[in-house]
Design goal:
The complex is a heterodimer. By secondary structure, chain A is α/β, with parallel strands linked by helices. In chain A, 39% of the residues lie in helices and 17% in strands. Chain A folds into three domains: 171 residues, Thiamin diphosphate (ThDP)-binding fold, Pyr/PP domains (Rossmann fold); 168 residues, Rossmann fold, CATH 3.40.50; 171 residues, Thiamin diphosphate (ThDP)-binding fold, Pyr/PP domains (Rossmann fold, 3-Layer(aba) Sandwich). Chain B has five helices and nine strands; from the N terminus they run βαββαβαβαββαββ. In chain B, strands 5, 6, 7, 8 and 9 form a five-stranded antiparallel sheet that branches. The radius of gyration of chain B is 21 Å and the shape is elongated. The chains are: A alpha/beta, B alpha+beta.
Amino acid sequence: MTRQMTGAQIVVQALKDQGVDTVFGYPGGAVLPIYDEIFKQNDIRHILVRHEQGATHAAEGYARSTGKPGVVLVTSGPGATNAVTGMTDALLDSIPMIVLTGQVPTFMIGTDAFQEADTVGITRPCTKHNWLVKDTDELGETIHKAFHVATSGRPGPVLIDIPKDVQFATGTYFGTEPTRPWNYNPQVKGDSDAIMDAVELIERAERPILYTGGGVINSGPEASRLLRDLAASTGFPVTSTLMGLGAYPASGKAWLGMLGMHGTYEANMAMHDCDVMICVGARFDDRITGRIDAFSPRSRKVHIDIDPSSVNKVIHVDVPIIGDVANVLSDILEAWRARGARTRAAEIEDWWTQISGWRAMKCLAYKPSPTVIKPQYALERLEALTKDHDRYVCTEVGQHQMWAAQFLHFDEPNRWMTSGGLGTMGYGVPASVGVQIAHPEALVINVAGEASWLMTMQEMLTAVQYGAPVKQFIMNNERLGMVRQWQQLLHGERYSQSWSEALPDFVKLAEAFGAKGAQVSDPADLDDAIAQMLAHDGPFILDCLVEKHENCFPMIPSGKAHNEMLLGEASTDGAIDTSGAVLV
Amino acid sequence: MNALALKKGASSKSAYNLRDPHAERVERHIIAVLVDNESGVLARVIGLFSGRGFNIDSLTVAEVDHLGHLSRITVVTSGTPEVIEQIKAQLGRLVPVVDVHDLTVEAPHVERELALVKVRGTGADRVEAMRMGEVFRAHIVDTTLESFVFEITGAPDKIDTFIELMRPLGLVNVARTGVAAITRGPGKLERERGHG
């Protein structure tokens, strides 16, 4: 069904045809025609953020918590450049996002016009793909193709740059169907020989582990269900990356906790000593592997990934399976069951005994305090008081993020929204707003450090404007905690620029935003303070003053192997040599 | 001790060392990339190489199928076998890339490069340059009383040799196209499209 419309009308119509209900954005000169069309309709809700970076992170929060792509609309020049951080964040964490940017009119491109930037040039390395649309007739199809690219294969952010004259001009809208083939159809079904190789390894494994990641969540709820089925049917232990938390339930029998730099002792030791590793939708990131040449030296490795470039990028694997996680897991289960669903149960039993020994180390234990709120304690109480809620958790980046991953437990996918790959401080406030917009009735908490939180705090006004009752749980140590920890362990305790001598009064700040705030410093008052935060029917900032110099353990120091973890303060002396210090 | 004062190639067990060019055998590969001829596609391919620290020894690009909007990019690159595999995988995931073929491993192939070589001289040097040109089957495409421009095609090492021979005879400058390559025999590579 072709229709004649203006470019701006095509944008809004194409978004509606894609089922978009929410757009996060900020107007400006080069997108005024599109904002005019948004004004004239009620199907798409526009959320006005306070900074374009906030729009991108809010869209990420929306996408990560719903599985649907997040949509962003910003203006040319600074509007586009401010969105770069969020696009890069979405690229590294494989989050589907569509960013629409205004551009100066086509006849002014290249003249250094007001608010002109080479947006497609700047964003080429931080998007999965991008387009500059110079012809109104091509606008509709480009938008539909952008949704296809953003959501197929390994998801990611895409950008469409739309000059203002293209928005004003009248052109033809062709609907959602391609007028010519799109040539982008990533492989979703795994190779059957590789699947049989994986099945054989499952049958023969004596010390197996399932190492799962964000790919399970990106694949959709069916992938999480199949993962649980596989773990339950085989009795294999499960660990996950930061991105994959919730795909397998933290309350599950086979759960070892998160792995990696700040993962649990049992998860990392099991990774190191396993004989069969099945990597499901994870990418052997440097936070996971530690020292490469000592990574799981005796295991045969299966790697399920939808992106061929993830395979053998960092770690050589024996059985690569290119495909969608749900599709491949389903085929593996079917083939394994067809051959009799065999495992080496007795050996796996012994393996579990060994794992129980590692668990007995109680690697997450910390020294409690009657006078100061330990950050771990704060999160334990937050977990206890919120676990029965319909809960979504965002974080900022740093120590608090790692503690949240350790002490909060997720039994479902899409409940944990954190900046993993890029590690973007300032992610959490806007992300929590985006999550709350998508789930108005749910409890949405942003576990934050005060330093990260300050980077995008203006998005509190977005929360207030739209009545999004986000709970900002700030663990305030008046430090850049993770930076301080590294300076302590690696730079001779020279705390260069890692503490804030000026911080706002967060309670007054909350009031100034039109929200509500409270401060708590005594462990005895913590439960009441959390209860007050939960009871408040609106956005809330809890300024939780915590121990200033707590370090996050366990920790695999840079340049060390999984079996060389630091378990607490006593183990840190000389633990990291100078060759490790050069790593990040 | 300064943590950053590490000796190059020293004992750091870092992921960054994976691509240490001295650690493993470096191979030269010719990779043919068929792409949708859309705006910015060349920048995307080049940006991939520079952004991920891969080498480009030469690169040629031109449209090969006008109706199908297809261009063929021939990249000559070098790296360890792992890096070459990674280059191909990274190229393959670019949205406008239709097909990636490593001619070096996939099939017998012909590779050719064209060079324009300007030589200035008189007397015996001039005569010697012209004689060498004949030996190498170079065409003279421009001449003055004191100069020649030779057009020479061949494999890159033949061109290298010719240029070295011209150096003492009055070499002025050189323009080279970079390598174009194609499989031998009547067939196409699997999935290879266009006029390939």
